[in-house]
Write a structure and sequence with these properties.
By secondary structure, the protein is an alpha+beta fold. It has 2 domains: about 40 residues; about 60 residues, SH3 type barrels. The protein is about 30% helix and about 20% strand. The chain contains 3 helices and 5 strands. A 5-stranded antiparallel sheet has the order 4-3-2-1-5, with no helix packed on it.
């Protein structure tokens, strides 16, 4: 019985797909275990619906977590809705402190003070807006 090359190629492709399927499954399982190890009382977390808060209490029997979003606002959510433990980025305060681009242009949507916008550049004559022309 002769084996067709097309059959061999199909079996190889099937074996590769099965390999990647098991590999991805193990990766997802490892990521879920890592997340559950980081989830603890006092951790700042984000839920799968985009809510940020701090964990106050965890109930393993009921699979529930109490999350405080703002002072005095406590929400009870399912433990699996916690998708990420938030760690503050060290670069975030630096980016917020920059008001202008490197070349001095204002950031998108930033208002420019009229005093700086109306300031004459070098070589331009200064004209006061309050002066009246002689022909008026």
């Amino acid at each position: 019985m002769a084996i067709d090359p097309l059959t061999i190629i199909m079996l190889v492709v099937l074996a590769v797909l099965v390999f990647f399927m098991f590999r991805n499954s193990r990766k997802r399982k490892a990521q879920a275990e890592e997340l559950q190890s980081k989830v603890a009382v006092g951790a700042e977390v984000m839920t799968n619906f985009g809510l940020y808060g701090t964990i106050l209490e965890m109930d393993d029997e009921e699979n529930q977590v109490l999350v405080e979003t703002t002072p005095g606002t406590v929400l009870r959510v399912h433990r699996q809705t916690v998708t990420r433990v938030v760690t503050p980025s060290p670069l975030a305060p630096l980016e917020e402190s920059l008001d202008h681009d490197v070349d001095g242009a204002p950031a998108y949507g930033e208002r420019i003070d009229e005093t700086t916008a109306d300031a004459p550049t070098a070589g331009e004559p200064t004209v006061s807006k309050t002066e009246k022309k002689d022909d008026e």
